[in-house]
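Table 4 source record.
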Amino acid sequence: MEAITQLSYALDTFYFLVSGALVMWMAAGFAMLEAGLVRSKNTAEILLKNIALFAIACIMYMVVGYNIMYPGEGVSSVWPGISFLLGGDNTVEEVLASGGETYYSSMSDFFFQVVFVATAMSIVSGAVAERMKLWAFLIFAIFMTGFIYPLQGYWKWGGGFLDGLGFLDFAGSGVVHLCGAAAALAGVLLLGARKGKYGPNGEVHPIPGANLPLATLGTFILWLGWFGFNGGSELKISDIGEANAVALVFVNTNMAAAGGVVAAAITARILFGKTDLTMALNGALAGLVAITAEPLTPTPLLATLIGAIGGVLVVFSIISLDKLRIDDPVGAISVHGVVGMWGLIAVVLSNPDATLGAQLTGLGVILGWTLVASLVVWMVIKVVMGLRVSEEEEYEGVDLAECGLEAYPEFTGAKGSGI
């Protein structure tokens, strides 16, 4: 029995680590997606944001964030308290004495959780692209990954009051995606739109991305990484029941993404008379976000429908935000925020333990906390150092202004050409 326990522990730990590695690969997906959807003169800076935010997330979550989110015993169901740095790992004696309650390494749990934090922060980078100061963004990342995200994560996944209310969020439609979108919305509201995006009479001027093949590659990378995102959130694979559950999570994740693509493509065709590639890409991501709150209890058909509704919603949301003059270059607020809310509500369609009241409460708390806390942090940064590059720097491109180099120097035109 001892040997079986140790083997199961090793298998579940290994599965957790591999799932975390898949989620880490999503950082590459976000980087490629965002690099493809911005103009070439802003490519190097968006790539720098993505690799820097990942590093900041890892450090801040190690220093303080993980212990806020998973304090063991919090001070209360609202406030977990603060402690610093990671503790040790489980000993053989502790695992055997736990009676099966401890079935994976605590360090593997940290690794899996830290890549989720980075995912939430990655959502912000695309929404504020092409006009935010690099270091304003990176300073916000410190507070987002060290404090804002972990506190609302504690309320659900750390055993806080949302968990006690019966709020359900399997892998983070709310805790990760809605949180990231709310932080992005706060930044965009204070930052304003890119120059030339909107006309004086309400006109919306499209600003196409520079590299749609790259954006498509990024979407496929995210789709692949999402199997670790949702599949790893089952936390265990070492018995028949859990193995079957993981397989169903994988299938439902895949089917929701497929439903999102098809629905978004059809919706775009009906509305625009053309099948917009960027809408199809966002449809895939919308389907994935929608199923993340509950990928285990739906049938594959229902998962496809949940993803399809997400695909429709994301198209209408992108159009609506433009009408409101909320400029989001990559559609992150729509994909992760609007569809994240749909994902939380959709849990009631298949999980008998879910109640609409609890889901709406969780939705409102995550949205409200993250939006208000982020607004405060963004406003302080704005007062201290400013959020936005100068009009001339925006015209020249933030690659030159912030990084002193260009991503595609041999392909760009004369300096300041606006390409």
